[in-house]
């Protein structure tokens, strides 16, 4: 005489294998999301550094640069390196005259606390007048 036992369901081994597979999928997915989040944060900070450099470059095009309470022209800052802070960034401004009349090479370097650097370099023709407002660097932002 044969006894038939209805064996519907899963064994303990099958359940453990399924749990391990689900854990591996979860870990892989979480790793991907963490990497995407880290990349997004870095891209956001890079974008902010780029925007800061672009804003300063546009202001320098107008030939209005305020350092502390004094206003300077591009000619007055020629061949000087100006360091200042725009929290949380350190900014270095370099202006060099080219061998063409009224043409200046402007270099703006924006550095964050982790030493990520964005450099914007542009040539500005001071003979053209396409201005908006003026740049403002507060005296306490200057770095000796």
From TrEMBL:
<keyword id="KW-0472">Membrane</keyword>
<protein>
    <submittedName>
        <fullName>Type II secretion system GspH family protein</fullName>
    </submittedName>
</protein>
<keyword id="KW-1133">Transmembrane helix</keyword>
<feature type="transmembrane region" description="Helical">
    <location>
        <begin position="12"/>
        <end position="36"/>
    </location>
</feature>
<keyword id="KW-0812">Transmembrane</keyword>
<dbReference type="Pfam" id="PF07963">
    <property type="entry name" value="N_methyl"/>
</dbReference>
<dbReference type="InterPro" id="IPR012902">
    <property type="entry name" value="N_methyl_site"/>
</dbReference>
């Amino acid at each position: 005489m044969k006894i038939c036992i209805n064996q519907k369901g899963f064994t303990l081994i099958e359940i453990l294998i399924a749990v391990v597979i689900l854990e591996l999928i979860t870990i892989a997915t979480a790793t991907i999301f963490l990497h995407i989040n880290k990349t997004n944060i870095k891209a956001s900070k890079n974008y902010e550094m780029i925007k800061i450099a672009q804003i300063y470059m546009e202001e320098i095009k107008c030939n209005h640069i305020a350092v502390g309470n004094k206003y300077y022209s591009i000619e007055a800052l020629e061949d000087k390196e100006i360091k200042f802070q725009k929290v949380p960034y350190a900014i270095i401004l370099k202006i060099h005259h080219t061998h063409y009349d009224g043409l200046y090479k402007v270099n703006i370097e924006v550095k964050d606390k982790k030493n990520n650097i964005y450099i914007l370099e542009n040539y500005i023709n001071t003979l053209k007048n396409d201005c908006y407002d003026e740049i403002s660097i507060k005296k306490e932002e200057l770095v000796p």
